């Protein structure tokens, strides 16, 4: 089996941050050029055999997570109009560089990225997800890594332990209890990150926490009546890994375009 290194770029996570760093009022061409420079640095650093940029769909539908938890990303700031209008130009520039784009159809890009990452990992091949989104940390395993390009760091086991105080496989239970403020996932009222980490250190899962008979009365009081909410928040935090992708690895083999290499 040949050694593969599949790099999956969380495209909107990257592009929105690149765009935000550009001088206000600049034309979309500036963002396109900045995105290509960023892409070049990512490729030089990671040396992929295969690469793809995964984009969220641009519709107003907030997807299956909002059906489970109506508040999910309810007040998320819309994409700047100039950026939305320039996405085709960015995708074209990526294509000319040798990087194909995958556009989600109703499913969030996160779930498509998770599905692809685990499909590759099942073949014992290496995957790097390029994103600042800590939600991908639930996928961590020896062949799956997450790279925060902007902070030039790996979101690895040590990062998860320092940031959350739990193991990667406990992260969805952690978010089920403590919530995710950036996505308007409430968690259990009155249960903060430190308490969630402490509870999961003792009981490992949400089910075990709620089933525990030796919990301190103050935690019992806060948890009482919130089991269903905690489970819904956990479900929303979990990445789907069974999304139909419609392509194979050969389709995303990286063959750099000549002009792309010189930019």
Report on the structure:
It contains 12 helices and 6 strands. With 263 residues, the protein is an alpha/beta fold. Strands 3-2-1-4-5-6 form a 6-stranded mixed β-sheet, sandwiched between helices. Strand 5 (144-148) and strand 6 (153-154) form a beta hairpin. The longest helix is centred in the N-terminal third of the chain and has 19 residues, at 28-46.
Structural topology:
Layout: E1 5-10, H1 11-20, H2 28-46, E2 50-55, H3 64-68, H4 81-97, E3 100-103, H5 109-122, E4 126-130, E5 144-148, E6 153-154, H6 157-164, H7 171-178, H8 193-203, H9 206-211, H10 217-223, H11 227-237, H12 258-261
Parallel strand pairs: 1-2, 1-4, 2-3, 4-5
Antiparallel strand pairs: 5-6
Pfam family, one: 5_3_exonuc
Binding site for K(+): 177-178, 188, 191
Keywords: DNA-binding, Endonuclease, Hydrolase, Magnesium, Metal-binding, Nuclease, Potassium
Brief digest:
Pfam families: 5_3_exonuc (PF01367), 5_3_exonuc_N (PF02739). The protein is α/β, with parallel strands linked by helices and 263 residues long.
